């Protein structure tokens, strides 16, 4: 039998017949596909020969080479066949294994004691009890024989172990971070030397998947990546809140507000909830958010102070914990456009009483937060060097602060020496506070740099009975003052600030219908938290921070 070879038009393919019309490309391949029977005669195309259509019998040396090549192809084919066979066997094994794992049914053993449903925080003291806990998978480590899960439910973290069939089961392999599960098992005390939250571990005997979170590109860890641009992380704030640091700050925040309410109660103040949509300003027109209120001009409140003042005559001393709004264009680390404002107002007291009340409020509240079983340890974790403030706080009059700043070479906003009447802006104020290193009651600011309602000091009418509480690392956390008692003086304040007094008739009436000495203050929740939790910015202390350029999610 003759087989034709043409190294320019031929093809080395098993579908090729090897005829003159359909030649092979190489002699090696021609011999390789014609292994059965006697060796065929190979005819090779030679362009310049005058032979049968250009084909001549292969030379002895080329035939030897073709035979060697065919041998190589044979070996290669055998190897490939072997590999294919092994892969097929492995695939079959994998399918069988998967079927076997899929067949592992995770079933609750009903002969076990009934599991008591509880939140993670309670599990720590339920040693040797069979419990059911529901939550989100915070951490996950799976191997063939054992699975470690750290479950989170907002009350704490619980280390759980899946072993035996539970670890092997196909469904366990599908678990991802942030999936929700219900775990059933026995709480075991951890042996000495091992650590896990609460000193316990859950020995899981059964579990159910409630909702699987995405894997792959959309996996949780791809949505919130540590060190990513802060703006991108803020877009993912709803997921960031699941992280340990942010959720810890939010827990301290809850404890802080609870502690404030407790101290307000001890101090005899009643909680009220004034409106946030208003038609008056408190802290200057430049930071007002305007809104169209059914065709009338209205604002989002800057402070509930004026409303609190109206409650004194009916409810006595009052407080509120309410959102305040400031259209602050500045992107500083301590300004938000919306913040939670803790405000108190007290009647029949003098400036000294007010200062002492503020000191007591802050020290007692901080003490309660530190004693709180949840928040106390979290503050230790977030701010290990935090020292609770002690009464009395250092008192520093504005005029003495000006001297102090000049003595320490700190300049004003114009990069000049401070002079009486200058505003002590954020940077200078923080430098001073950080250098002094203890809480300061900075008092008696000049009339011109404070609001229209502040009472003047009897012994120096250039200054007001006003106070800012300054804390190291943050600066001002509280602003307060005694309020003007007389109608005439208040009217003069409106005129000085260019405010139309007619919209404030209800506020003025407090002076007309039985005036009294009174004073109050406002505390920025996010600022006091930044100090307590050692956060760089108030943005880290707000659930969904608002500042210029950000009003989502
Ligand atoms: O000093 P402020 O402006 O005082 C008042 O609003 C008074 N009317 C309060 C009162 O006497 N009832 O604000 C009080 C506190 C500040 O010390 C600061 O902690 C916080 O509110 N604060 C802000 N926090 C975050 N972002 C802002 N833009 C803030 N502006 C004020």
Automatic annotation (TrEMBL):
Keywords: Aminoacyl-tRNA synthetase, ATP-binding, Cytoplasm, Ligase, Nucleotide-binding, Protein biosynthesis. GO terms for molecular function: asparagine-tRNA ligase activity; ATP binding; sequence-specific mRNA binding. The keyword Ribosomal protein does not apply. InterPro entries: Aa-tRNA-synt_II, aa-tRNA-synth_II, aa-tRNA-synth_II/BPL/LPL, Asn-tRNA-ligase, AsnRS_N, Asp/Asn-tRNA-synth_IIb, NA-bd_OB-fold, NA-bd_OB_tRNA. It comes from the Eukaryota. Pfam families: AsnRS_N, tRNA-synt_2, tRNA_anti-codon. One of its GO terms (biological process) is asparaginyl-tRNA aminoacylation. This is asparagine--tRNA ligase. It comes from Eremothecium cymbalariae (strain CBS 270.75 / DBVPG 7215 / KCTC 17166 / NRRL Y-17582) (Yeast).
């Amino acid at each position: 039998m003759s087989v034709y070879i043409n190294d320019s038009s031929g093809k080395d393919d098993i579908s090729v017949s090897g005829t003159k019309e359909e030649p092979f490309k190489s002699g090696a391949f021609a011999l390789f596909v014609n292994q059965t029977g006697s060796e065929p005669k190979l005819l090779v195309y030679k362009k310049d020969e005058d032979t049968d259509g250009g084909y001549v019998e292969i030379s002895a040396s080329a035939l030897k080479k073709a035979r060697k090549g065919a041998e190589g192809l044979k070996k290669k084919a055998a190897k490939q066949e072997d590999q294919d066979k092994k892969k097929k066997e492995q695939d079959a094994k994998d399918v069988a294994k998967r079927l076997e794992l899929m067949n592992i049914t995770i079933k609750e053993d009903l002969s076990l004691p009934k599991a008591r449903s509880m939140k993670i925080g309670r599990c720590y003291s339920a040693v040797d009890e069979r419990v059911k806990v529901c939550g989100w998978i915070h951490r996950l480590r799976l191997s063939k024989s054992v699975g470690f899960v750290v479950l989170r439910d907002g009350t704490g973290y619980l280390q759980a172990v899946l072993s035996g069939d539970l670890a092997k089961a196909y469904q366990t392999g599908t678990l991802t971070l942030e999936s929700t599960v219900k775990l059933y098992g026995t709480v075991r005390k951890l042996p000495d030397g091992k650590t896990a939250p609460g000193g316990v571990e859950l020995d899981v005997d059964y579990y159910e998947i409630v909702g699987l979170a995405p894997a792959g590109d959309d996996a949780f860890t791809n949505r919130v990546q540590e060190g990513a641009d802060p703006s991108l992380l803020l877009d993912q704030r709803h997921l960031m809140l699941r992280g340990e640091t942010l959720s810890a700050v939010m827990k301290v925040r809850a404890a802080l507000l609870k502690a404030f309410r407790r101290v307000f109660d001890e101090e005899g103040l009643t909680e009220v909830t004034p409106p946030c949509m208003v038609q008056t300003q408190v802290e200057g027109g430049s930071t007002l958010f305007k809104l169209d209120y059914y065709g009338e001009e209205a604002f989002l409140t800057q402070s509930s102070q004026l409303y609190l003042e109206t409650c004194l005559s009916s409810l006595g001393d009052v407080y509120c914990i309410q959102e305040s709004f400031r259209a602050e264009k500045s992107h500083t680390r301590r300004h938000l456009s919306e913040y939670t404002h803790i405000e108190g107002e007290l009647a029949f007291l003098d400036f000294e009483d007010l200062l002492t009340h503020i000191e007591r409020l802050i020290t007692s509240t901080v003490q309660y937060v530190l004693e709180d079983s949840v928040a106390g340890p979290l503050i230790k974790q977030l701010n290990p060097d935090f020292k609770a403030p002690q009464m009395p706080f250092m008192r520093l009059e504005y005029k003495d602060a000006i001297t102090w700043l000049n003595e320490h070479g700190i300049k004003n906003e114009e990069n000049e020496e401070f002079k009486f009447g200058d505003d002590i802006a954020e940077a200078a104020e923080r430098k001073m506070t950080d250098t002094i290193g203890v809480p300061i009651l900075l008092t008696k600011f000049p009339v011109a740099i404070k609001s229209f309602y502040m009472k003047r000091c009897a012994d120096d009418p250039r200054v007001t009975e006003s106070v800012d509480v300054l804390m190291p690392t943050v600066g001002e956390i509280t602003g307060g003052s005694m309020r003007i008692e007389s109608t005439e003086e208040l009217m003069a304040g409106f005129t000085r600030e260019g405010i139309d007094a007619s919209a404030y008739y209800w506020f003025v009436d407090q002076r007309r219908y039985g005036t009294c000495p009174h004073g109050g203050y406002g505390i920025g929740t996010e600022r006091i938290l930044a100090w307590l939790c050692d956060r760089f910015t108030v943005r880290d202390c707000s659930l969904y921070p608002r500042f210029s350029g950000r009003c989502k999610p």
